[in-house]
Amino acid sequence: DRRGWNWPMYQELVAFAAERGWPLIAANLSRAQARDIALGKVTPALPPADAVQLSALQDALVRGHCGYRPPDEQLARLVAAQRARDARMAGALEAAARSHAQVVFITGAGHAHRGHGVPRYMKDDRSVLVIALIEVDADHRLPQDYALSGYDYVWFTAATPRKDPCLGPMGAAITG
Length: 176
Prior knowledge:
The protein is mainly α. The chain has five helices and two strands; from the N terminus they run H-H-H-H-H-E-E. It has a two-stranded parallel sheet. The chain is globular.
């Protein structure tokens, strides 16, 4: 259980697939590979990205780091690492699809997004059905209150109670 990775949340799903002998395929970059890109040690070969894709990824990374916006050069490397992760996952899905009739990819909504996630790197994203699970926020009760573009379907779920990762041990906001 590394920070940000909640194994118990996935354990039953992985066990379900393993019990049935379904193939389980690692699709992501290793931590070391992603870190080398984020530190600027490696520059990944990626297709060009448009301003909308880059802006969406930058915004997601800043939100994911409690509102802290690193210097532009560092943020660009973090975006490159995220894009490299999505490209690697797309390649793994396409490879799996060549040997299996159907492939199910379980990931977060950001990686699943057609505009800036894994489908963007697939040769034929029309064969992909993107379903996002969206937790309902008490302050947002209507579908139009959520950013739903980029998904074929959304499934609204109850919010999972969790500690705010942006609050420090003393309840103070972490800003970077």
